[in-house]
Amino acid sequence: MEKGAGTAKPLGARTAMQSCSSEETRSAGRDLAAGLRAGDCVLLEGGLGAGKTEFARGLAEGLGVNPAAVRSPTFTLVNLYSGRLPVYHIDLYRIEKETELRELGLEEILGTDGVAIVEWPDRLGSYRPENAVTVRLTDLGGETRGITIDDRRYSVR
After folding, report:
1. What does residue 25 show for φ and ψ, rounded to 5 degrees?
2. Full residue range of the structural domain in which residue 54 is found
3. Contact 139, 46 (CB under 8 A)
4. Cα separation of 14 and 45, whole Å?
5. How far apart are CA 55 and CA 37, in angstroms?
6. How far is the C-alpha of 94 from the C-alpha of 87, rounded, in Å?
7. Which of 110, 126, 150, 152 has the smallest C-beta neighbourhood within 10 Å, fewest atoms?
8. Domain count for the chain
9. What share of the chain is helix, strand, coil (3-state, %, to 5)?
């Protein structure tokens, strides 16, 4: 595993790195954002406190959103931010059944005019896109996080 967020390899495959701070986690998100386009979906996996929201903040910043505006949408479920593309930040932590997802209008978000960032994507069920970027964040202790990026956008399209 590479150390330091700035050492990420180009997209299109699997990249592994280590972040030693919240800023490095955000930086990894900013780096990924540079290659995102309308319709892309980024699935953020990891336990509570793994750094999903920090990574999402970096993604949003890389897409032109003020990072101070990015908050975890745990209670609102979906936050919409304006950047160079619309950014849909979705947090499914509180979702218990796939039927609850219909009420969120995911058909109008995933794969459309903006970039969707989904925390707790294991709850997407049949809504989970095949051609997504999956980011796995692992708490390695202290501020250190393992970050694995699996970009499947081009393997399915």
Report:
1. -65, -45
2. 2-156
3. yes
4. 15
5. 17
6. 20
7. 126
8. 1
9. 30, 25, 45
d(CA 148, CA 43): 11
pTM assigned to the model: 0.86
String of b and e for 25-63 (b: at least 16 CB within 10 Å)?
Answer: bbbbbbbbbeebeebbbbbbbbeeebbbbbbbbbbbbbb
pLDDT of 4-43, one tens digit each?
444 444 445 788 999 999 999 999 999 999 999 999 999 9
Give the type of residue at 59.
L
CATH number at residue 52: 3.40.50.300
Amino acid at 71: R
Residues 6+ apart with CB under 8 A from 47: 139
